[in-house]
Amino acid sequence: MHKRKYLMIFLENIPIFLCLAIFLIFSILTPKFLSIGNLLDILTAVAYVGILAVGMTFVIITGGIDLSVGSVVYLSSLIPALLIRDSALSVPIALIICLLVGAAIGAINAFFIVKMKMIPFLVTLCTMVGSRGLAIFLCNSQVVKFPREITNLSIGKIMGIPLPIIFLAVVVAIAFFIQEKTPIGRQIYAIGNNIEVARKAGINTERVAAFAYIICGIFAALGGIMSVFQMGGVINASAGEGAEFQAIAAVVLGGASLSGGIGSVFPGTLLGAIIIKLLNVGLIYLGTDMYFQNIISALIILLAVFIDSLKTSYIYKLGRKNIRIEEQK
Amino acid sequence: MANIALEINDISKSFFGVYVITDISFKLEKGNILGLIGENGAGKSTLVNIVGGIHQVDKGNMKLFGKLYAPKTPRDALEKHISFVHQELNLFPNLSIADNIFIEKYPGGSVIKHSEMKKRTSEMLKWVDLDISPSTLIEKLSPGQRQLVEIVKCMRINPDIIIFDEPTTSLASKETERLFKLIKKLKSEGKTIIYISHILTDIKKITDDLVVLMDGKITDSGKTDDFSINRMIKSMLGRDIMGRKYPDKINKSDEEVVLKVENLSEPGIIRNINFELHKGEILGLFGLMGSGRTELTRVLFGIDPYKEGNIYIHGKKENKLSPEKSIKNKIGFVTENRNEEGLLLEGNVAENISLVSLPNYSSKILKFINTNKQKESINEIIERLKIKIGSTEKQLVRSLSGGNQQKIVIAKWLMNKPSIFFIDEPTRGIDVGVKYELYCILNKLADSGASILVVSSEIEELVGICDRILIMSKGEISSEFKNREFDNEMILTAAFKQKSML
Amino acid sequence: MASIEKPLNKLIKLVHVDSFLRMFLSQYFILILSILIFLVMWPVNPNIASPRALMNILENLLPLFIIAIGQMYVLIIGDGGIDLSQPSIIGMTSVIGAIFLTNSVNELKLGSSVLWGTLLGPDGGPFANSPLATPVAILIMIIIGVLIGSINGFCIAKFKMPPFMVTLVTKELFLYIAIWLTQSFNITGLPDSFIEIGRGSIWTIPYVLIIAAVMGVIASIILKRTVLGKWLYATGINSRTARVSGVPTNRVIIFAYAFSGFCCAVGSIIYSGRLLQGSPTLCRAMLLDIIGATVIGGTSMFGGRGRVSGVLIGCLFFALMGTVLNLLRLSPFIINMVKGLFILTVALLDVIRLRRSES
User: Fold this and answer.
1) Which of A6, A28, A242, B88 is most buried (CB neighbours < 10 A)?
2) For residue range B43-63, what is the model confidence (pLDDT) as tens digits?
């Protein structure tokens, strides 16, 4: 009986255990790992994928997926860049346009997935391809640059903490607020768990699901801003490529379930993003082959998905209709 | 003139052209507990679903406290202060008690006021004597506790009318007592209650008035005190037996035991099941919903696992059961849910009928199908079972009638020439004429030497075609009636008798 | 229920004649569309009818066809079945095959590979210059393809992991493994006997055509005439019914993915031969084409439907469209967009078809 309890506690808090484990292992293997500078660097690097993953969390909790975030990163940072270059747009308006682009792609996803009831991964696969194509078309496959003032922001610090980390903290805080303190944030959990019951409870399931995809798009746009910082203000055709996989990985590592209803922006997904970066950096410190690192990352993600499936089938077995109640533990 | 809370006037409702309830009329007094009883499929759920806004009426109307009431969605019913405690609890296990209660309308508008939510939830939990923190996740609660949460959820909208649909199926005895206390408390606060249950002793205990449904019509109603259990059963089942025919049974079953079950148990599902099935016998397994009869059959066929016990098929002890193994042992299984597990709805007739017996028509090594031989057998069995279809290849099973669909499932298993045949709810959703055909098919099957286990919730069906009947309740076999010496009254009383509380 | 499904219902009502819908979804429509495209482009750009352009279309079509057959098997078994890892299986088998085939390796590039000194040396791989090289390599490539496919199938069937996620992760995983083995370089020095398979012909019939024809026929026979084929379709239409009816659904699922891996290995043989190199990123951008060809060819993403002839026509359409768009000098990204749009449309029609029959 106690065994089961400890198992459940373990399964529910895997992200924390994993994070600590990786941290400890690397700290022991390479003491340099523990330096504050290194940790700040890691957090700065986390900002990009972290923001994308935070938005992705909402979609995954509803039981869906969004493969288009990488392309949104590209498109949402490209369009403002072009507008600034060609029509001398002011920075705040450029920022708003960036977010609007993200929201627009999110809305397109929402339309086909929620209203037309199509399979999420297929729809977002198409928007992924479409958005990237559109972006390349708009810039004629050329590289576009952001002006100095913006790129300088990426190096800035407030009270010694790099700006990207502050940005990440603010974004996570906003997402956490949405998740915990708004009705629609809670309803996302409801539709992810059982959409029929949610409908019966009077929830407008379409509105909630659409919200998740649009929010994901907006956060992807925010991630686009982060990516601009990281690339030194330069946007080229490979911007955002592969980002969706990293984002999904962070969400799954953070304990969210691909079948929906389970997951959290904080600590879950944030820890997931940190785990990925810790792994990357730790392996670099160990001097492993750059290509080998990717293999380890992919294996860890596979393991996370495996554990998620175990959890899901375990929960399913527990939920089987019970007749002899007195025999229930 | 007593205050009438809900008035039902001549309500009729049909699905796909078949009337499920017809001309239902009754009045519900405020502050009363109305019991609604009837067999499976009598129309109880449909009726209350209409009150709850899940379905719309075809004919008739409803009046709520004198005003016309026609909800189009569950939300409408909620707004009119009508609450529904479903049998399948509508809770989200991944969310807390407080979240579940307020999921549709949080205090505070667009920003949730957590402290207020917690306070209100605690108050409501106190009211039902549930001493648990409001932030506990539902998945950590027992079924009884979950039901109390569901009731609390209903209380949030301050309901005038509360509908309970089979509330005690998942409850232990203590929890049932707790529920009854709560219902009495609700009544004392002026709430009106509709209580659906198949546990007649419970109905006697807690309801004031009673309405009996049978085949979608009201057959009896009145004050509960005026009803004996017998009268209840008779009103539920006393249909015109002249209309229902059963084939004559001529053969006598052998002594040879084809299936023997010893001490079979799966914790929480079935316990200590012991019985034998003889060659050529039609054995009936009767139980109400939640008795474990379907679960038992699934375990016997190998779909679900079991923890203890022994199963002997044709005298040989079988350990790791599976559908493949059962099929090799020439066992067939028509499940109770033909749409989900019996048919390939998007497939054609030939694909469906040939599915189980595919290996029988194929060459050994490369498994090529001998289509000619197979087609012959398919056509032969379609004729034998009198399945009315056009082309076997073009006709999609989805568009066939319930009767034909069931015949196709049976045909599929008969193609494998089973010696043991399990069939769960053989005539569910099928009209009377085809029912007789199905009984004849089963009869002929037993005549030819096969042994049949018929699981059903329609007692007269079993009385009509079985040699023996086992009664199941709460996961155990509670009684047995042998050799066609069926006394209807005795059986029905035994069937509806539940382990008494206290 | 009505209020929630309004736009979809409106669309369904628009396409309210059954035969209309069946026409759109039939593979013959796509075939006719392909011919129409061809005829329309002819006056605009006469090059399209040139033997070179036609050969080009055929060359693009055939290996795609082989791989798409594998994807079709995976889509047929339903329950969200999809194989996103196909490009990586192609890359992985390409690399491993090349390792065994190569007869000369550039030390500067592959010197830092983990295989250097063990399997690889300046004089090539273990079977360098040996007559056994090609058959052994082919065998190993096929084994690796089937193995990776089986891993996918096992995770999906036994552990019930979601197909798109599993194959998404194995896609990345095996891409990285292949890149790591070759340090991101291509392996050259492949023997002529191997290259012949992808490029050569016998009695003017290209080997590719023979291989594609054989694979197509075998795949079609399995589906139409064997127990396994019926099991594949049954699992796709309703896996629960299939399970109760005795279909060994787990084994069927694993087979479908293993077969997909097999098709990828065969396709990889051809592509690697044509490229003259073993490349870890071989066919990396081909996923859209593969899925597109399969889906446009009438294979439903919901399972239970799909025919080899449909896949062939889908490949024809995609190869044709690709050539035409190329001749129009459109950027590859625009071409991808157009392809994506087609897939979206077909998928939408598929959803409509399913919802229609359900109501």
Assistant:
1) B88
2) 888 898 899 888 888 999 999
